[in-house]
Amino acid sequence: MNDIAAAFHEYFEIVTADTPELQKEVFSLRYKIWCIKECFFNPSDFPDELEKDEYDNQSIHLLLKHKASDSFIGTARLVLSDTSYKYDKFPLELHTQFYPVYSGMHIDRPHTIEISRFAILSDFFRRRDDLNFAVGKISKHYDMSGRRRFPHPMLGLAVGIIQMCAKRNIYYWFSAMDPALNRLLGFYGMQLNPIGPLVNYYGKRRPYYVCILDVLERMYQNHRDIWELVTNSGQIWPADLRSIPLRQQRANIDSKIVTC
Questions:
Q1: Stated pTM of the model
Q2: Which of 25, 89, 216, 241 suits a disulfide with 93, CB 3.0-4.6 Å?
């Protein structure tokens, strides 16, 4: 096990919020981040101090737990879209714009998610430099005593997302996010492809899309230690992605789908 993987398992744990109690932790954390800290939502709209919306019932919710403090410090949701759910379109499709070349793209909905509510509780960070990912700097490895070993807690959430996608046979990601966050993910080979202009959607957001297999290939080639962490050294996602049936079928997918 490499040092980054060892540090992750020492300091963090990914928890799937699949009970009412854990989902309450998700909504409470989102309230603290999105309503109180970031002010994207009006706190008075959530008198129970639980930030939630109509897409939560068709989402997989993840929590990032900091082991030493036994506290949840981050959360993300994976919005599902297929005919078994009430909302068959992703929020991104309703609230952002696509460039014309992507307006008619094929969306393999049973194998696609939208990543949203991706956030870390800022009080967890010890120094303001760690918060300012918009400047394009990588936080150095750290632990809570000041000895830095793990690049960024947001990478921990990404680990959970990738591993959950493997369990659910998810191959495509949508996300409407701040370009600064996409740049941060790019430091680890996880960047998504922009498919539309910036819009005002709870702050400046741009729609993104990517095929997870291409993300994993980039990581395998350029960030092997991160790849080993997110794939458990190839046990979750194999190193030879050609063995995944989707890879063999991609030539037959609608030509307007985004080239990842």
A1: 0.84
A2: 89
